[in-house]
């Protein structure tokens, strides 16, 4: 599960880290190019619903295999995109696949492990995202200066094939098998259950909570490489160091918070992480020196990672058991859609001011 989410995070981040280069290839502005990122995020709720329904009805295993297969094909095609319209279309299809991956991986992980391990492994699972970001940064450092941005997408096909083969050997979720033995999930029941036992209220609460954090997260993820490249004028080597430092901070924060949530409680750790992240925003925004700006970004992502590290287990525990994959995917990916225009807003403001 870790490898699948890491692969899709890497592919998504390749698009962000090479934003200015792809824009130059297609002869468009960075703000126009940011539409591709927005389109990807906009389609993720579609994938969350589609793969969530399939996973709750037919099991986690086969949708997970299909998910990575689609991502591999789209990555391959993205490297051959002749113009921006084709590139944006391919990224929208990738968004559908990416929208299903996290929820299915999180559900499969939580359902296959004993409850005493849920907090720690929720944090470890979130490490997949910054790990994928680090791989993207390293690929950009090693590959782009020599042969351009297109091979970055082609290279990601190789690990995808390995993950597909690996998932053929992964057993089905034992919790889902037990639920299927009791009753077959039906689409009508899924729709009805959205208003049962306070689930609708829980969905709204989760949307507000996740969306508020994602506005901060998106500002430090989608255009951060472009910010330090265009505004700070850093060379590729220092950009890579900055990106890896930021993502290592996320990995440290997510694992630590996931472990602490077993003892301090999920809500305390999540709210504390948000408060600490906000405390470092002035350093990132107003610091006069380059290293101070990067340091501010690292500390913010440590604590944003702290929030995200608890998110999987928290959604697992508060969501309806019958439709867990649908609930987890829908709430997280709709929140991503709500905050999807962050990159465009940032790019437009940067070009104007």
TrEMBL record:
It comes from the Eukaryota. Residues 1-353 form the Major facilitator superfamily (MFS) profile domain. PANTHER family: CARBOXYLIC ACID TRANSPORTER PROTEIN HOMOLOG. Keywords: Membrane, Transmembrane, Transmembrane helix. It is a multi-pass membrane protein. InterPro entries: MFS, MFS_dom, MFS_trans_sf. It is found in: Membrane. GO terms for cellular component: plasma membrane. It comes from Dimargaris cristalligena. This is Major facilitator superfamily domain-containing protein. GO terms for molecular function: carboxylic acid transmembrane transporter activity. Coiled coil: none annotated. Signal peptide: none annotated. The chain crosses the membrane at residues 36-55, 62-81, 120-145, 151-170, 269-287, 293-315.
